[in-house]
Structures
1.
Amino acid sequence: MKRSRIVPIIIVIAIAAFVIYSMQGGSPENYEATILKDREEKTEFMKSASGSPFLKDSIPFGQLNYFPIDETYRVKASLTSIDNKKVVLLATSDGLEQKYLEYAFAEFQLNGMNHKLLILEVMDSGPQRGKLFLAFADETSGADTYGAGRYLDLKKVPAATSVILDFNLAYNPYCAYNDTYSCPFPPRENILKTAIKAGEKNYH
């Protein structure tokens, strides 16, 4: 085969390999850099943004605490849609309730166990309406992590049959920093019987 033909073939193979590699999440270094950037941006928000739960009531900001980044806690979960969706009432930290709509169940394996979490959809009017909400608690809750559970943000993708749950991005509700906020507790289904040693830890 002539050299002029070999070069284009090599380029095509290299591009294909790069695309496949990127779809699989890239290198561990890039993944870690992405998580660190997310944490840095959150710290800056808490320090100076007008929507910070610290600035709202002039609470001194210290630092946010995290578990070491561990890609083991980034899992692919299968989604099971819920046909007859029901309204779910979640108790909140101030003794009230918030309404959510059932969306789907996420099933995955982690720490050698099978798990199933209920994903909810926000029903309240406003910019959050229709967004997905996942609150969970685990065996670190009340010890290393906030006792009332932590949250994960998920992107709604119509007709999706799977979703990535990255617990390295698990974060505390604002109630962990300022008790004047109303924060929903996780539904009973979302109390995991394992320790999720990833994401945000206790603030204090």
2.
Amino acid sequence: MINRVLIRLKLIQIVYAYYQNGNKNLEAGEKELFFSLSKAYDLYNYLLMLMVAVTRYAQKRIDAAKAKLAPTAEELNPNTKFADNQFIAQLEVNKQLCEYAANQKRSWNDEEDFVKELYDTIVASDIYKEYMAAEDKSYEADRELWRKIYKNFICINESLDGLLEDQSLYWNDDKEIVDTFVMKSIKRFDPANGANQELLPEFKDEEDREFARRLFRRTILNADYYRHLISENIRNWELDRVAFMDVIIMQCALAEILSFPNIPLSVTLNEYVEMAKIYSTRKSGSFVNGTLDGIIKVLKKEGKLTKN
């Protein structure tokens, strides 16, 4: 699940904190990087659990209505299509998700106000009304409902963003990327797999884990060389006048450019320039792009840059 886009994002955050905190312990910094990545995987599981929590809340509402002293005919014979959603029934018993919930002791039980708010938003939507009125009772229709719900009401949800930020500082910048992983998981669910449906693994393979470890170490251990390259290629500027975040972003980018010959230059440049636009100053994107481009030309001319 943790892809290289997320690894690069976490790398910049951890390297920035590494220098800001004055803690120059390489092992501790590496440990913090992997802990931060593991928290993104926690968020992935937690958001999967949210869909189950909303469905359980729907069933709770049905049961409460039936238990009234004088329930209406509609309350005694409700439309249970949403509560009986087949995709959610499969997700609820998923072995990996159940194991995660048991080990992490994490649930949505203490967030019923938000679950209710989300449920009410869903029920008021045309997506819900069309689903409940449709005669299609297939698994595919049930799964598609939750794909639409997630895209429209969970991907963009200010209340949820605030709730997640209160729970973990590590989740501040993770959700947008993690949402794509959840959407991918919804599409991959197959009823034939039952409770054994595979969720996305924390790392796709050992190569990505090694990418994170090696990139962090190269960024820190070769910092003097990378900053020398930056200093030599910024026109009319002293290095200490450049935004510190820009320096960190270029330092990380140079570590990737010089340490991973199989990664195309265009991929590395695009990723770090985009992060400069988001996490640094208004002009940082063009500044980082121009500076790195100049360094690359010098390295190529000197025969110090090899790309497959």
